Inverse folding.
DNA sequence: CGTTCGATGCACT
DNA sequence: GTGCATCGAACGT
């Protein structure tokens, strides 16, 4: 079997213990696949009245332009997809399947509609708050939660992530360069990264625009075996 | 392990 | 009226 490289340390930027740095607008105003890869290992933070919750990003999907049939911009500008055409570094949240809020990060430049769906986090801060939100009655929930939720599964899948992080439609259009909801670099290890087709879509499923950390138990959907992944920082698809 | 299926609300045609 | 960038329970193998 192929040798497994040691997990990539985050390419010589900062070490653990240094001051976390909030990602600036320029981080998001780049090609979407580049932003997607670079979001892996970063930390999503939500400061809410209920408490601070955060988690390490381990799975994302890119949705790029009107030519991408799975992107919400595919029909051209509408009222719902307006944030996709706006300033990068803002939040795009939409409500899906009657019960799930989907958290996206707007990328590229103003006028070019693209975003990244954040699908999974490894929880870091506020695990109790996350669990309360996941188990809270009311709202829309597919089924009454039966068992206790393992800590590592609190933010597995985009619907669960938004719920645990307390992100709702009310956060649509929010600026990620603000103090409430943002992404920061804590110098955490990126790990082995792989690309695959996007999950759960019925069109555009051929594009390998899902990026995830190999071996993370917080990742939703199919994952490559660690032994089959050669590079710790896979080239863009 | 695997597949199927219902819940549920909104944007869009 | 149709179709979802989902989730988890229930069942089959």
């Amino acid at each position: 079997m192929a040798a497994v490289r040691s997990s990539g340390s985050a390419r010589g930027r900062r070490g653990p213990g240094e001051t976390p740095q909030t990602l600036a607008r320029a981080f998001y105003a780049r090609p979407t696949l580049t932003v997607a890869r670079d979001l892996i290992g970063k930390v999503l933070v939500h400061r809410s009245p209920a408490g601070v919750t955060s988690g390490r990003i381990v799975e994302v999907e890119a949705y790029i332009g009107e030519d991408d049939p799975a992107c919400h911009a595919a029909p051209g500008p509408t009222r719902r997809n307006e944030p996709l055409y706006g300033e990068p570094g803002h939040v795009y949240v939409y409500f899906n399947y009657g019960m799930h809020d989907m958290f996206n990060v707007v990328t590229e430049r103003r006028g070019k509609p693209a975003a990244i769906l954040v699908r999974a986090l490894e929880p870091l801060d506020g695990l109790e708050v996350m669990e309360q939100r996941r188990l809270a009655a009311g709202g829309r929930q597919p089924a009454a939660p039966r068992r206790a939720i393992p800590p590592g599964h609190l933010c597995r899948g985009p619907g669960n992530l938004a719920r645990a992080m307390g992100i709702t439609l009310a956060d649509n259009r929010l600026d990620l360069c603000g103090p409430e909801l943002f992404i920061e670099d804590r110098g955490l290890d990126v790990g082995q990264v792989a690309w695959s087709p996007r999950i759960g879509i019925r069109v555009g499923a051929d594009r390998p625009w899902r990026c995830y950390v190999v071996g993370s138990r917080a990742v939703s959907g199919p994952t490559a075996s660690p032994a089959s992944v050669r590079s710790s920082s896979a080239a863009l698809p």
